[in-house]
Write a structure and sequence with these properties.
The chain has 170 residues and is mainly α. The protein is built from five helices and no strands. The structure holds MU-OXO-diiron.
Length: 170
């Protein structure tokens, strides 16, 4: 069994990851409404990845003999007016998630829970990727988003993003 505080933080993180999925689905909906299919695709896949993160936490708690509780998932808190807005909010949101993962890591470290620290290593690396992707998307939009041809090309690039399940998620 895991330390109760660590287990509670992991259970809470299931909810946060599902909330992240809901936020990215909301962004996909915004872009669908805007007519940017590629951006919609990029965020739809992002939502799928967040669900995977939640399921990885669920499996981990289950494998360690913990009961999993399902909490209320909040309504997405962000609103958008223009295509750049979700990109900026994504970076903001991922930085919050990085802080949450680090908090769980701290709690595991405090009780010498090396197993959970090792489990969380994947998420620590993933957060570096998530923040980098968000920064790259903002930069690309700054460079190309104001020109119709540039925006079209960027939309096509985002349309090519394909879903792949994380290597540790079964
Ligand atoms: Fe599950 Fe976007 O971090």
């Amino acid at each position: 069994m895991l330390n109760e505080k660590v287990a509670k933080l992991l259970n809470d993180q299931i909810n946060k990851e599902l909330y992240s999925a809901y936020i990215y689905l909301d962004m996909a909906n915004f872009y669908a409404d805007y007519g940017l299919d590629g951006f919609e695709n990029w965020f739809y896949i992002q939502a799928q990845e967040e669900r995977d993160h939640a399921m990885m936490m669920r499996e981990y708690l289950k494998d360690n003999g913990h009961k999993i509780t399902s909490e209320l998932i909040e309504k997405p808190e962000y609103t958008y007016e223009k295509p750049m807005d979700p990109l900026v909010k994504t970076l903001h949101h991922e930085k919050i998630v990085t802080g949450l993962i680090n908090n769980i890591y701290d709690a595991a470290h405090e009780v010498k829970d090396y197993r959970t620290m090792q489990f969380l290593d994947w998420f620590v690396n993933e957060q570096m990727e998530e923040e980098k992707n968000a920064e790259d998307n903002i930069r690309k939009f700054e460079l190309f988003g104001s020109d119709p041809k540039g925006l079209y090309s960027l939309d096509q690039e985002f349309l090519a993003r394909a879903y792949t399940a994380p290597s540790t998620a079964e």
